[in-house]
Design goal:
- 2 copies of one chain form a homodimer.
- With 112 residues, chain A is an alpha+beta fold.
- The first copy, chain A, has one domain: Alpha-Beta Plaits.
- Chain A has 4 helices and 6 strands, in the order E-H-H-E-E-H-H-E-E-E.
- In chain A, strands 1, 2, 3, 4 and 5 form a 5-stranded antiparallel beta sheet that branches.
- In chain A, a hairpin with a 5-residue loop joins strand 2 and strand 3.
- The mean pLDDT of chain A is 97.
- Chains A and B meet through strand 1, helix 1, helix 2, strand 2 and strand 3 of A and strand 1, helix 1, helix 2, strand 2 and strand 3 of B.
Chain lengths: 112, 112
Amino acid sequence: MKRFGYTIGVREDKLDEYRQLHAEVWPAVNAAMTACNLRNFTIFLRRFPDGKHYLFMYYEYAGDDYAADMRRLAADRDIQEWWKLTDPCQEPLTDRDPSEWWATMSEVCHND
Amino acid sequence: MKRFGYTIGVREDKLDEYRQLHAEVWPAVNAAMTACNLRNFTIFLRRFPDGKHYLFMYYEYAGDDYAADMRRLAADRDIQEWWKLTDPCQEPLTDRDPSEWWATMSEVCHND
Protein backbone atom coordinates (compact mmCIF):
# COMPACT_ATOMS: atom_id res chain seq x y z
CA MET A 1 0.00 0.00 0.00
CA LYS A 2 1.64 3.24 -1.10
CA ARG A 3 1.28 6.28 1.20
CA PHE A 4 0.91 9.90 0.14
CA GLY A 5 1.28 13.15 2.07
CA TYR A 6 0.31 16.57 0.69
CA THR A 7 0.00 20.09 2.03
CA ILE A 8 -1.80 23.29 1.04
CA GLY A 9 -2.71 26.61 2.65
CA VAL A 10 -6.21 27.70 3.66
CA ARG A 11 -7.38 31.27 3.08
CA GLU A 12 -8.06 32.83 6.45
CA ASP A 13 -11.37 34.30 5.26
CA LYS A 14 -12.47 30.83 4.09
CA LEU A 15 -11.34 28.82 7.11
CA ASP A 16 -14.79 28.47 8.67
CA GLU A 17 -16.33 27.60 5.32
CA TYR A 18 -13.69 24.92 4.73
CA ARG A 19 -14.27 23.41 8.17
CA GLN A 20 -18.05 23.43 7.69
CA LEU A 21 -17.81 21.75 4.28
CA HIS A 22 -15.65 18.98 5.74
CA ALA A 23 -17.87 18.45 8.76
CA GLU A 24 -20.31 16.92 6.28
CA VAL A 25 -18.41 15.67 3.25
CA TRP A 26 -20.86 14.55 0.57
CA PRO A 27 -21.26 10.76 0.57
CA ALA A 28 -20.75 10.81 -3.22
CA VAL A 29 -17.32 12.42 -2.73
CA ASN A 30 -16.21 9.75 -0.29
CA ALA A 31 -17.63 7.06 -2.56
CA ALA A 32 -15.71 8.41 -5.57
CA MET A 33 -12.46 8.43 -3.60
CA THR A 34 -13.05 4.85 -2.49
CA ALA A 35 -13.91 3.81 -6.07
CA CYS A 36 -10.60 5.31 -7.19
CA ASN A 37 -8.74 3.18 -4.64
CA LEU A 38 -7.95 5.85 -2.05
CA ARG A 39 -7.97 4.41 1.48
CA ASN A 40 -7.56 5.72 5.01
CA PHE A 41 -7.97 9.31 3.84
CA THR A 42 -7.53 12.05 6.46
CA ILE A 43 -7.07 15.83 6.35
CA PHE A 44 -5.51 17.65 9.32
CA LEU A 45 -5.34 21.40 10.01
CA ARG A 46 -2.94 23.61 12.00
CA ARG A 47 -2.03 27.27 12.34
CA PHE A 48 1.64 27.67 11.41
CA PRO A 49 4.30 30.13 12.65
CA ASP A 50 3.67 32.49 9.70
CA GLY A 51 0.18 33.02 11.13
CA LYS A 52 -1.53 31.15 8.29
CA HIS A 53 -3.38 27.83 8.43
CA TYR A 54 -2.20 24.81 6.48
CA LEU A 55 -3.78 21.48 5.72
CA PHE A 56 -2.07 18.14 5.68
CA MET A 57 -3.66 15.36 3.64
CA TYR A 58 -2.73 11.71 4.19
CA TYR A 59 -4.01 8.69 2.27
CA GLU A 60 -3.05 5.28 1.02
CA TYR A 61 -3.49 3.92 -2.48
CA ALA A 62 -4.81 0.40 -3.00
CA GLY A 63 -4.91 0.25 -6.81
CA ASP A 64 -2.29 -0.52 -9.45
CA ASP A 65 -2.49 2.53 -11.76
CA TYR A 66 -2.35 5.69 -9.67
CA ALA A 67 -2.25 8.14 -12.58
CA ALA A 68 -5.27 6.54 -14.24
CA ASP A 69 -7.23 6.49 -10.98
CA MET A 70 -6.41 10.15 -10.34
CA ARG A 71 -7.64 11.05 -13.85
CA ARG A 72 -10.82 9.05 -13.16
CA LEU A 73 -11.28 10.89 -9.86
CA ALA A 74 -10.80 14.28 -11.49
CA ALA A 75 -13.41 13.36 -14.13
CA ASP A 76 -16.05 12.43 -11.54
CA ARG A 77 -18.98 14.90 -11.62
CA ASP A 78 -19.47 14.98 -7.84
CA ILE A 79 -15.75 15.49 -7.26
CA GLN A 80 -15.76 18.35 -9.77
CA GLU A 81 -18.69 20.02 -7.96
CA TRP A 82 -16.97 19.47 -4.60
CA TRP A 83 -13.70 20.99 -5.82
CA LYS A 84 -15.61 24.05 -7.07
CA LEU A 85 -16.40 24.67 -3.39
CA THR A 86 -13.11 23.64 -1.81
CA ASP A 87 -10.55 25.04 -4.31
CA PRO A 88 -11.46 28.70 -3.59
CA CYS A 89 -10.83 28.03 0.13
CA GLN A 90 -7.30 26.85 -0.56
CA GLU A 91 -4.05 28.69 -1.25
CA PRO A 92 -1.59 26.36 -2.99
CA LEU A 93 2.13 26.55 -2.28
CA THR A 94 3.71 28.57 -5.08
CA ASP A 95 6.69 26.22 -5.40
CA ARG A 96 4.54 23.13 -5.96
CA ASP A 97 5.04 21.02 -9.08
CA PRO A 98 3.12 22.62 -11.98
CA SER A 99 1.01 19.46 -12.28
CA GLU A 100 -0.11 19.73 -8.65
CA TRP A 101 -2.71 21.61 -6.60
CA TRP A 102 -1.81 20.16 -3.21
CA ALA A 103 2.01 20.04 -2.86
CA THR A 104 3.64 16.64 -2.38
CA MET A 105 5.55 16.11 0.86
CA SER A 106 8.45 13.67 0.87
CA GLU A 107 8.47 10.64 3.14
CA VAL A 108 11.25 10.73 5.74
CA CYS A 109 10.54 7.42 7.50
CA HIS A 110 7.89 4.76 8.01
CA ASN A 111 7.23 1.98 10.50
CA ASP A 112 4.31 -0.41 10.02
CA MET B 1 -8.09 2.83 15.51
CA LYS B 2 -7.47 6.43 16.54
CA ARG B 3 -5.40 8.61 14.19
CA PHE B 4 -2.98 11.36 15.16
CA GLY B 5 -1.36 14.16 13.15
CA TYR B 6 1.45 16.37 14.47
CA THR B 7 3.77 19.00 13.06
CA ILE B 8 7.13 20.54 14.00
CA GLY B 9 9.81 22.65 12.31
CA VAL B 10 13.27 21.43 11.32
CA ARG B 11 16.31 23.64 11.82
CA GLU B 12 17.76 24.42 8.42
CA ASP B 13 21.32 23.66 9.60
CA LYS B 14 20.15 20.25 10.85
CA LEU B 15 18.05 19.22 7.88
CA ASP B 16 20.61 16.88 6.34
CA GLU B 17 21.36 15.33 9.72
CA TYR B 18 17.65 14.75 10.35
CA ARG B 19 17.21 13.12 6.96
CA GLN B 20 20.26 10.91 7.48
CA LEU B 21 19.11 9.77 10.92
CA HIS B 22 15.73 8.78 9.50
CA ALA B 23 17.18 6.97 6.51
CA GLU B 24 18.26 4.35 9.03
CA VAL B 25 16.01 4.53 12.07
CA TRP B 26 17.36 2.23 14.81
CA PRO B 27 15.44 -1.06 14.88
CA ALA B 28 15.08 -0.63 18.67
CA VAL B 29 13.27 2.69 18.11
CA ASN B 30 10.77 1.12 15.72
CA ALA B 31 10.35 -1.84 18.08
CA ALA B 32 9.62 0.46 21.02
CA MET B 33 6.99 2.35 19.04
CA THR B 34 5.35 -0.92 18.00
CA ALA B 35 5.46 -2.19 21.62
CA CYS B 36 3.68 1.02 22.68
CA ASN B 37 0.89 0.33 20.16
CA LEU B 38 1.82 2.90 17.51
CA ARG B 39 0.97 1.65 14.02
CA ASN B 40 1.38 2.86 10.44
CA PHE B 41 3.83 5.54 11.54
CA THR B 42 5.07 7.96 8.86
CA ILE B 43 6.93 11.28 8.88
CA PHE B 44 6.73 13.62 5.87
CA LEU B 45 8.80 16.72 5.10
CA ARG B 46 8.15 19.87 3.03
CA ARG B 47 9.58 23.36 2.62
CA PHE B 48 6.85 25.88 3.50
CA PRO B 49 6.15 29.40 2.19
CA ASP B 50 8.07 31.00 5.09
CA GLY B 51 11.19 29.32 3.67
CA LYS B 52 11.48 26.87 6.56
CA HIS B 53 11.02 23.11 6.53
CA TYR B 54 8.30 21.41 8.53
CA LEU B 55 7.61 17.79 9.37
CA PHE B 56 4.25 16.10 9.46
CA MET B 57 3.92 12.97 11.59
CA TYR B 58 1.01 10.56 11.11
CA TYR B 59 0.28 7.43 13.09
CA GLU B 60 -2.50 5.27 14.42
CA TYR B 61 -2.91 3.98 17.95
CA ALA B 62 -3.93 0.38 18.56
CA GLY B 63 -3.92 0.28 22.38
CA ASP B 64 -6.47 1.28 24.99
CA ASP B 65 -4.49 3.67 27.24
CA TYR B 66 -2.75 6.24 25.09
CA ALA B 67 -1.38 8.35 27.95
CA ALA B 68 0.13 5.31 29.66
CA ASP B 69 1.67 4.04 26.42
CA MET B 70 3.16 7.47 25.70
CA ARG B 71 4.72 7.54 29.18
CA ARG B 72 6.09 4.04 28.56
CA LEU B 73 7.53 5.17 25.22
CA ALA B 74 9.15 8.22 26.79
CA ALA B 75 10.74 6.00 29.46
CA ASP B 76 12.30 3.63 26.92
CA ARG B 77 16.12 3.90 26.96
CA ASP B 78 16.54 3.59 23.19
CA ILE B 79 13.84 6.19 22.57
CA GLN B 80 15.55 8.54 25.01
CA GLU B 81 18.88 8.12 23.19
CA TRP B 82 17.15 8.63 19.84
CA TRP B 83 15.41 11.81 20.99
CA LYS B 84 18.76 13.17 22.19
CA LEU B 85 19.76 13.12 18.51
CA THR B 86 16.48 14.20 16.92
CA ASP B 87 15.26 16.90 19.36
CA PRO B 88 18.15 19.30 18.58
CA CYS B 89 17.21 19.05 14.87
CA GLN B 90 13.67 20.20 15.56
CA GLU B 91 12.15 23.61 16.17
CA PRO B 92 8.79 23.23 17.95
CA LEU B 93 5.89 25.56 17.21
CA THR B 94 5.84 28.19 19.96
CA ASP B 95 2.05 28.05 20.31
CA ARG B 96 1.96 24.31 20.95
CA ASP B 97 0.33 22.96 24.11
CA PRO B 98 2.85 23.19 27.00
CA SER B 99 2.69 19.40 27.37
CA GLU B 100 3.72 18.88 23.73
CA TRP B 101 6.92 18.81 21.68
CA TRP B 102 5.31 18.10 18.31
CA ALA B 103 2.16 20.24 17.93
CA THR B 104 -1.17 18.46 17.52
CA MET B 105 -3.06 19.08 14.29
CA SER B 106 -6.84 18.83 14.31
CA GLU B 107 -8.65 16.35 12.10
CA VAL B 108 -10.85 18.00 9.48
CA CYS B 109 -12.25 14.88 7.81
CA HIS B 110 -11.68 11.17 7.37
CA ASN B 111 -12.80 8.47 4.94
CA ASP B 112 -11.85 4.83 5.50
